[in-house]
Structures are given as C-alpha cells and as structure tokens.
Amino acid sequence: MKGKLLFTTLIACALSSSVMAQTEETRTKETRLTIGGYGEAVMTRNFYSQHFNRYRDPESHANDESHGQFDIPHAVLNLGYNFGKGWTFGMEIEFEHGGTESAVEVDADEAGEYEAEVERGGEVALEQFWINKEWLNGKLNLKFGELVIPVGETNAHHMPNEFFTVYRPEGESIIFPCTWHQVGAELWGRIGQFGYEVLFTSGLDSERFGSRSFIHDGAASPYEFKIANSYAVAGRIDNYSIPGMRLSLSGYYGNSFKNTLRTVTSSRYGDVKGTVAIGAFGLNYRGHNWIVRGNADFAYLSDASLITSFNNSFPTHSGQDGSPSKHQPIGSHAYSYGVEAGWNIFSQFENIRRSNEKLYIFGRFEKYDSMSSGSHMEAYRYLKVSRMAVGLNYIPLNGLTIKAEYSKRFLTKTYNDEPSVSIGVTYAGWFNL
Question: Which of 408, 402, 364, 362 is nearest to 385 (CA)?
Fold first, then answer.
C-alpha cells in the first residue's frame, strides 16, 4: 500500500502541487494505473487591429475593427503506471489549439505573406514520457525521458488552475518555451522544507530564435529527433518554510549556436557560442482566502548580433528556404516579471463556503520585453509591453474553473494599446478508475 501511495504522489508532483492537493481521495485508492489531464476552451474578443502591419504603421490602424477568436489552447491526457519497487512511469500527450502543431500565420517581416510554420515534427506533442526511480521515501529520485524543464513559474506550474488569467501568463509564455520539454535526465526530490530539481539535457537551437519570441522556439525541432551538439543544465529550488508560501529559484545555462544539422564553415562564426543564461524567481502564497503569485525572469543570449547575421544569411524565396530560421533580429537580453492576486468572495458566505465553491476576484500586472537590449531594439519598441488584467474565477468543484477577464496591453508611445475580453472554461485533475 505504501508503494502505491508513493506512486500516485510522484505522478501528481509531475503534474503540479495544486492538482496533488485537490486529489487526496484519488491518492488513497490502491491502483497501479492513473489517468488525468487538463484543458481549456476559450473565447476572446480583441479590440485592436489584427493587420500584419499594425506595428509598422500604427497610425493607419488605430481605428481598425475588433476581431474575435475561439480556441482550445491545450487539451492534455496524462497516464501513469506503478511498476513497483520504486519504479514508476508517466506520460503526457498534448493537443495544442486543437490541431497538429502546424499553422499558417501572416508575418510583417515577410511583407504580409501567408507563411506555413511547423513548430515540431509529428501530429501531437508528447510533452512528458519518463521512467522514475525513487529512493529514501521521495528524498532522492532519478527521472529520465521527455521532461518538463522547470525554469520559471509557468513551466513548473502550467495547469489552468495555477493561474487566474484565461491564457497562461503572457510574459513567460512569450520569451521561454512553454511548456518547455526536452529529453534528458533529472535528479529531484524533497528534503524537509526544500524541493530540488537538477536536470541535464540538449541545448536550444539558435536558428529558431526570433524577435518577438526570443528563445521560445529554440526547444522545438523540425526533425524526428532533437539535435544535441550542445548540452545544457537547468535547476530549481523550492522552499516551503513559511506556512502557505512557496518561494522558488530556477535557472538554465547552455549553448545554442551550431546545435543544428548545418555545418558552419565561415571563420566569422568560429567563436560564436550563443550561450543562453536564465535566472528566475517565483512565489506562491495561499492563506486567509487569498492567492498571490509572482514571477521575475531575466535571460541573456551571447553573440546575438552574429546569430542574427547568420540566420539572415540563408537565401529566401517568398519567405521559404526550407530552413527553420525566422530571418529576424534577435535581442541579447529579455525579461518578464509579474504579480497576480485573487480573493475568494464566497469565503464571506457560510452556506456557499460549506459547499466548497469559490469565486475569486483577481488582478494581474506584468511587464515583459523580448528585445530589451540588442542592436535592433529601437526598431522593435512595440515588443516592450505592460499588461494588466482583472476578472473572476468561479470554481464550482475542485478541478473545474470558469474564467472571465478584461485585459489590456500598454505599448510604448507611437503604438496603439491592445484591450481584449476573454472567457474560458477549464479543468485539471485526476479521474477515478
């Protein structure tokens, strides 16, 4: 019985601490197989121009019509199995935007042409696929396979009941891969009031970096395998010493240039490494009917101007040369920081409180810039964004959340601000067998 309890705890930790907290009844059952998942269905109305040239010529598009969209950002199935003797297995299959991870976009850097983008090979995303061996009652674990890189708050806690906004927090989701997952090996566990993770994996691919996305697409691969000419390490420490509070530090370090099938022969790029270094801080507080979350992330890319020149050197024909390069300038620094707070209105009504229903009124503010420093930053000032959101989260049952928000991006002068309204229905949890 003890081994089976440890197994479900392991799987729950791989998903998130909040799901684990919500599924106490599930974890007490004797089972070798567990099934869970999460997902979102969203409707949005954007009250700003969707024209591809709205940042190049903002005055001409200040009064353009609003536009709407329906979306399924994530639909995820999790499976876990307990082999016994401390050996467990977990996997996560994700369908993003209800499709196959291929899309067509209209890009200002391609003169408004329709451009096909393939984010990863394959029709679905296998975000987790790992074997775990546990020792010392969870103090030491070795996990290997397709793993989540736990850098930043959103990657480590990315399920829809772990943030108030309808979509994932915008800043981290833009500048980092999200959910960031790669093949690697990880040591992790919890000792007293500290949780730790140390992970070894392949480096990112600088050919896939971009202006708006910074290193976001660098973890993806257009091939049936992930190139590993360069390697990287990542780590995370969580502290739970303060009741109701989690404080977190995470980081990443690895090279990204030449992590490709292309052979670089030019002496100009002989010393280029494309080192990616990230430092991130996070907090999560639950108590007195409040939930407060925050993040601060800073990232650095060495040789950014040379990588920009290298990526732009590939010939293009109507924006297509067969390479994964976006042919865009890349910044040397990026940052994202934000805080959100929500208070449970239903905590003031005893009858509703007994039913365990919750209604959080929340506010969020964040600021981010995917090109805060670099040779082309002045031409991309619209990438410096402040964003606020206010709204409600109604939780009728554990694992189910109905969200509504009004948000607005505040851009630098010259550019038009971007307000929107969004509604979403989400779930996250384990299903009893």
Answer: 408
